[in-house]
Give the backbone structure.
Amino acid sequence: MPNFLENIFAQLEKSAPRVVVREIQGEEFRELTGTQLLQQIRRAQDWIRRRNFSPGDRVAILGPNSMRWIAIDLALMVEGLVVVPLYYRQAAGELVAVMRDCQPKMLIADGGALRGAINAAWPADAGFTCNTVLFDEILATSAIGRGEEQTGGVRLNPRADSDLVTIVYTSGTSGEPKGVCLNIGNVSFILERTTYRFNQLMRGSQGADSVFHYLPLNFAASWIATLTFLLRDSVVTLSTDLSKLADEIRLSQPHYFLNVPTLLERVRRGVDDAISKRPSVIRSLYERARAAAQREIDGAAQSFDGIWLAVGRALIFSKIKERFGPNLRALICGSAPLAPETQNFFRMLGIRVLQVYGLTETTGICTTDDPDGIVDTGHVGPTIDGIEMKVGQESELIVRGPNIFPGYWNREEETAAVLRDGWFHTGDQGEKNEHGNWRIVGRVKNLLILNSGHKIPPEPIEDKLAQLLPAAQHVILVGNGRGYVCVLLTGSVEKTTVQAALDDLNRELPHYRQIRNFTVLSETLTPESGLLTAMGKLRRTAINERFASQIDSLYAQKT
């Protein structure tokens, strides 16, 4: 049976004359046909073959989303190398720590600025050398013959299902990133399932899918989505400017695209803010229509709700929906829980939001909403075919199947802790409803997951802040499911002192880990109050519940 790489190249050959991937540059597109993408892959493949690589060597790749990133990634994989994708917005010191862990033979960077940042942060005692080359240097160098260049001529190498194909780094509760190893079999299995779901979504359509993509390719779910798009008859439009997403969506006119909750919640807040500035008659109509839509969802419709909904859809909701273009069939959302009110907001507009749940260790996916089935608000759909998922101790979701990773890179103890008796222990708590749809209800572990999908272990940041604030008795990071991180403090600390400490600490942190707001609690945390264990450890769930109003206030102040 062909593996995913063989299937992707077969699809590219089939799509040779038409555009398969493009980048938005202002109001214009830079495009590659199937033939042109194959040519770039072959250039990279030829460059790789003339270097001293051995199958299984690690190669890191660093840069924002681009057609060149895709071509080089595919070339590395087909040559039997293990790709280590890096997040280009992460601090250079953290990237160096990742590379020291997996010791790649080479770093391939998008530009000189990224290469310079890594070189400047590289420690003298690293213990190994990692040469750096730029994307352009690879794709501009070729010894390919003229005939091969015209036809693409990608050479496929035999790959076993057990062969590693990538190591994706994800943060652990200790604060140290762990390398999640994924193999050919993991990826081939998942891509069969994601392809099936998109076939369901696009049933009856004519021509190629139009797909917009803005999530960084170093994230497992984003990478899996991109490979799925390449497997299908698709035109993939890559975002090149996250500050202009609305314009880029308008230009690409997608049938669907992958999201994290941050963007969808930003759209909802933006609409609410815009409506609040309109004349009172528009505000009143919007509120009446929105209330009627919610009652319809709840199965509690009242008299005249149908009229308010019809008017609201004609005058307001349809205009908002038009911003996503005329082709939209659904928005796909994953990486973090989506607020039910946000999912219902899009449902009100006539836009389906289909949710996905999974972890890097599960090759990105465990469940997906079924486009042909019942989509329950606040749920993430049924388990994908071919895997098992059930509730273990403490309501923890445990999973087994061909999508489960073989282990963490060079971390046998951590691997053994999560892979037990053939089951992967996710650290998430969940439950299944009568429709077979799963809902994520909490975390067994302390890891904070922002609604952008970024995962943040709280302890290292708490420890650093406690060192800067010796008068603080307790430091508690919050932000699970939120857009950014805040902190609760106890003890005799002055607000000006706290702010100065945060300013110092934030300068060392990447943007998504920076603490945006704080409050000093008047209540002391004790075992007797139920907020600490007998050993003095934080009871985080109890603290979040006790101080829910204070936490909500922190985020209301920054909205």
